[in-house]
């Protein structure tokens, strides 16, 4: 069964939801940062307990569709405001497949991604982590134009399949404002556990090289998200306490790339980004370090 939706949700809010203060009383998540249950919005796309939220961080929902049980082919047509589109999707079933199922996403007829993490067990698409930030291919443009996106359930060979009780959904979002850090794009606003965080004006850079690192004091007595990464081919890790020795299983990012690390409120302490040495690799580019703080 094919579900088709071509409607576009208008962005006619008088005040941007990302700049509204959080009114829900927060609790604390396992990482020590605030945890707020998102408030339903009139423009959410919701059905049978599944939901694509209208606003998530700096992203705004353009259109979403939640299929019936057994739907395996969903299609949407949207007009992005810029040449960037965030694709979010989910797939739920209690069945188990030895070979697994895959989600393929096509944009204007061209396959842009294949994800083999289906099924998931979460009814909230934004919590699944199944999201991708896409841009047009070289020479193309999406801003203000109709863009057709298709989600298809497939087997390990890429052939379309139908799973009778599978629930799938597709949501398309304007990605919001981005900033370029020496060619690496990062969002100005991100969401973590229901709270919006905005990137500070300064992002610190350091050259790669033997034992390269950059360290800065994070915001004091407030929760924040550390932005870290590399503009070239270096691998980097974040060290929340500022120490550069005794690293064990650090969260690494392979450049060019970006990582995000939440840090609970504390009275002091450095945050350091270090280069992780790889045998036979001559690192290039720069390391970077920045901080997202809660939107007031």
Explain this structure to me?
The protein is mainly β. 1% of the residues lie in helices and 47% in strands. It has 2 domains: 2-174, Jelly Rolls (Sandwich), CATH 2.60.120; 178-294, Jelly Rolls. It contains 1 helix and 26 strands. Strand 10 (101-107) and strand 11 form a beta hairpin. The termini are far apart.
Give the SSE map.
Layout: E1 2-5, E2 27-28, E3 34-35, E4 45-47, E5 50-52, E6 55-56, E7 59-66, E8 73-78, E9 85-92, E10 101-107, E11 110-118, H1 125-128, E12 131-134, E13 147-154, E14 167-174, E15 178-181, E16 184-187, E17 189-192, E18 195-199, E19 204-207, E20 213-217, E21 224-230, E22 235-239, E23 252-254, E24 257-263, E25 270-276, E26 286-294
Parallel strand pairs: 1-8
Antiparallel strand pairs: 2-3, 4-5, 6-7, 7-14, 8-13, 9-12, 9-14, 10-11, 10-13, 15-16, 17-18, 18-26, 19-26, 20-25, 21-24, 21-26, 22-23, 22-25
